[in-house]
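$ run holo --ligand "magnesium ion" --emit tokens
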Amino acid sequence: MEPCIPLPLADGNTLKELIQKAKDWAIMHGAGMRSKDSFSPDSINFAPFMLLPSTFPRCEFERAVGIQPVLNELMHKVAHDYDFLKNSLETTIKVDEFTGRLFNIYETVRAEGITQDVSLALLRSDYFVDQSLFVAKQVEINTISSSFGALSNVLVDLHRFVLTELGHLTELRNLPDNNALEGLCGGMLSAWKVYNQPMSAILFVIEDVTYNICDQRFHEFEIQRQNAKVRVIRNTLTEIATIGKLDNEKRLFLNDTEIAVVYFRAGYTPDHYYSETEWNARLLIERSLAIKCPSIQYHLTGTKKVQQELARPGMLDKYLTPDKVESVKEIFTGLYSLGKDEVGDKAMQMALENPTRFVLKPQREGGGNNMYGENVKSYLEKIKDSDERSAWILMERINPPVQTNYMIRPNIQGPIVTEVVSELGIFGVVLGNADTILENTQVGHMLRTKISSADEGGVAAGFGALDSVYLVDIGKAPKKHV
Ligand code: ADP
Ligand code: MG
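-- output --
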């Protein structure tokens, strides 16, 4: 795809100056992260970013935006379908200890009787455009710790600034507005209102060390901006195990502060549970009257296994009207179970014959866990006769269109023009219980761009960078189903 403006930019002092100015703009407006190499709580680096917004087909952007309320509805209904979750995850939880423990918590609180029937979900559905079909295809949907809602807002402004510096004022209209932060925090405040205790606070569950601090703090500051009466407190699971307790109505208190809403920015990987202490804290939270973002069943709904089960023929019909089913099917790509049965054997065979066509995925979040190419083959050969097969799913690899752009990273000298590909994320908010959806909205977007040769584009890992979309009119218009 063509970049938003002709590249490369003329080398030399002007480009150097522009890059330095953009870096300073990023730091000064909070497009930042704490440094992993030289961590200090007193300083931030700019987060890796693309100098220019990346081209994205307008019709596919609109498709992804338009379908978000449908995906919100789908995830909400699936999260409230115990039988479906149990059946989908049945074999997986036997071999994947982490998912098994999450499921145990679900079973425990369900057996005790769910204290809080309202859940809040701040979702992010991720897409690559498939370069041959030219259709946005879903990579995954995140139901826990969907990050970069705040930094994505900042990136749009950064790119407006850079294009303006370069004199490309007419191009600015192709950068869509982004209010993800406002919408996500609005969702938390709606949940806080539903809880209805004026002195109660919102709890952010955090890691021991937060590298993505700007993104999180912006959420905190935005909550205060929208409602100055609502306090945000931040604690790790380890701390919550010590200072958290339930009163006789199962209200959650941290020391003397009542918690209305629990927003998880940690707890999505086994690495966050050092011992039984952290699991106890998770169970304490799930048992409580606080509104969880997400509640345990919503967390499980975001597993790769559930994504794969939903892609099986006929599965969506239970949850959505036929026209909505059709639009969701368009964004799904091939997803296959690897269980030890006939269906799984067929998928296994397909992957062994053509490993580069697939991605092998375990039940993990946070990047860096999938396998690609020859590793797919060697790993599948290793686990072919083992029950561990059920811990993984197989997904068709999506090949997005390549373009060039400048990736700007801390402590790397000189402008680097690289071939890159972009992954779009669309944010959604859902609030409700099994019977009623109180709120269902699409609230904004984000773009992450990686070097085209990298399998994954972790922003902190150095292969990926924050970006924003530059909409162009290429490709086909989406069919109007919804
Ligand atoms: P995680 O929960 O770790 O973010 P993802 O499913 O999002 O798991 O995979 C991580 C990354 O791997 C994605 O951001 C994307 O770069 C790459 N990836 C995942 N699935 C596919 C796919 N089907 N085709 C191509 N790349 C993929
Ligand atoms: Mg992902």
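-- notes --
The pocket of adenosine-5'-diphosphate (ligand 1) is lined by residues 126, 128, 139-140, 359, 361, 365-367, 369-370, 395, 397-398, 423, 456-457 (CB under 6 Å).
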